[in-house]
Amino acid sequence: MITSAEAVEAMAEVVSWEEVPESLEHKRIDYLAERKRSLRARYAYGIIFLITNLWAWFVRDYAQRVLPELHYMKSCGSGGNDCFHTLGVLRVSLGSFIFFFLMFLTTSKTRKLCEARNAWHSGWWGLKFFILLISMVVPLFVPSYSLQLYGEFARIGAGIFLLLQLISVIQFINWWNKYWMPDEQKKQSCSLGLFMSTLFYIASMSGIAFMYSSHAMKSPCILNIFFITWTTILLIVMMVISLHSKVNRGLLSSGIMASYIVFLCWSAIRSEPANEECNRQKQGNGNGDWSTILGFLIAICSIVMATFSTGIDSQSFQFQKDEVKEDDDIPYKYGFFHLTFSLGAMYFAMLFISWNLNNSAKKWSIDVGWTSTWVKIVNEWFAASIFLWTLISPVLRQSEVMDHEEPVQEIDNSAVP
């Protein structure tokens, strides 16, 4: 016979088994809500980053006229000049860097949605707004010589940011190439990939022709001719290697990369100081016409978007990409996200001061000067080199494996009587 105690235990087991699926479903709903909060938080941080950089532009161009009371601060020097123009940009950049680096330190080890650090990343906006204000005020009391040291440090941080952005771009190009690669189940992708390859190469060659006609028609423009010609050579080399029988990567990835390096070359030439011989763009008149203002705002928004996309692309920088995702895993790496924004703050500072710690940039200008030109050109060459290495390295590794296997086969054959 079944005793009353055994019956109670059996009923308890039945109830517990019925409650388990319900509790799991509630957990999944909670995790989904936390995931959505985390994804929405990205845009809030992006807006904060945009606002701080617009503030840096305002401090550089207009703050001396609007905020004359800063000359009372000892750290701002005589007339408050050390809090405007180049040093003013560095102060705002330092404040933005402090905020995002603090967020990096407090969220870098977050793994699960149920952790307190996840709640800190996705919420507590009142406290974070207060921390942001403190971060912006503290650099006002930093002496000028310390800001110069930060400027040198920011150059290194900006270079690291460019490298991270470059890796992210190359990973995106590889993903795009795989998405449109010919497949047995998706035969239509072959024609689409071919069409896009043709489109990108036409755009690249049109860009080359435009740069030759606009910036390299006169004999004194030897440097521009060299930049454009070398870009053309890199374009051809990437195309030839992509079509090589041992590489066999097709034209899509090389076409996208060709368009990217042509854009970098054009951007580098546009960053040259304006003159009548080799650069048709006119110097700003102090206030800037509508095209200058529109180009300036588009440049700021595009760089913010590039920083945002690099920050959420943590998958490109993981050595183990086959990890199993669970329901309570965070949707992206918070530490890497905030670290990218802290480096992006340094990069923005370099753009606003044209990588020059001594001279202030002109109003409504961004990233103009010979230093900016060479930074972009080196970035272009580095991008092409890394892309070519991604094409060649699998072939080299395969040849090394074959070289190691051949001696083993010879030994095995000699052992046979």
Unreliably modeled segments: 184-188, 283-288
The backbone outline, from C-alpha atoms, is: flat
Order of helices and strands: HHHHHHHHHHHH
Helix content: over 70%
Pfam families: Serinc
Membrane topology: Multi-pass membrane protein
Main location: membrane
Keywords: Membrane, Transmembrane, Transmembrane helix
Structure description:
This protein is mainly α and 417 residues long. The chain has one domain (28-67, 79-280, 297-316, 330-397). It has 12 helices and no strands. The protein is flat. The model is unreliable at 184-188 and 283-288 (pLDDT under 50).
Protein traits:
TDE1/TMS; 12 helices; single chain; Serine incorporator; mainly alpha; transmembrane helix; 71% helix; 417 residues; transmembrane
Layout of helices and strands, plus pairs?
Elements: H1 4-61, H2 63-66, H3 85-107, H4 116-122, H5 125-137, H6 144-179, H7 188-215, H8 222-243, H9 252-270, H10 290-312, H11 334-352, H12 370-415
Transmembrane segments: 43-63, 83-105, 125-147, 153-177, 189-210, 222-243, 250-270, 290-313, 334-357, 377-396
Pfam families: Serinc
Family: Belongs to the TDE1 family.
Give a quick precis of the structure.
The chain has 417 residues and is mostly helical.
